[in-house]
Amino acid sequence: MAMSQVVNTYPLSNYSFGTKEPKLEKDTSVADRLARMKVNYMKEGMRTSVEGILLVQEHNHPHILLLQIGNTFCKLPGGRLKPGENEVEGLKRKLTSKLGGTSAGIVPNWKVGECVATWWRPNFETMMYPYCPPHITKPKECKRLYIVHLSEKEYFAVPKNLKLLAVPLFELYDNVQRYGPVISTIPQQLSRFHFNMISS
After folding, report:
1. Nearest CA-CA partner of 47 in 57, 30, 33, 60
2. Among 23, 71, 124, 189, which is most exposed with the fewest C-beta within 10 angstroms?
3. Whole-prediction pTM value?
């Protein structure tokens, strides 16, 4: 029997949190975001984005760190790659931009692990799928989710206009209405891992 890959998860209380200048969203609405995506597609082709799954534990259960915008919308830290940019290096850049400290000495040691999911946006619409439909020859976005192995202690600087939430896997599971299809299926994608709960 094949062994599960081990993911060490440390208590949320091991990590310290501060704030930094707001990271304002480029778009004020979903329609604006899709319109900007269309403009960028015409210039650069398919959008490639990467997001990080950062795991901590509370009450002996894995929790995922999510950024909350306003009162309802949650997202994984990450974002769009530059044309030709390496996915792992691009994810580290995006994680530092979203959660790294303001000086080089307090940037977390991002250990990017394996890609656990790939999602496709066939058209300039909100729907994404964990496969590219066969009739789609020119998808508009490819999004990859990577597991990020956190060190035992880190400092995260959260933009003032965002909240960083630690959400348990049991809350995410099948909760499409609250978290959308990408985030609500993370528990299934992580089910092949063995979580090593390390107490402080």
Report:
1. 33
2. 71
3. 0.93
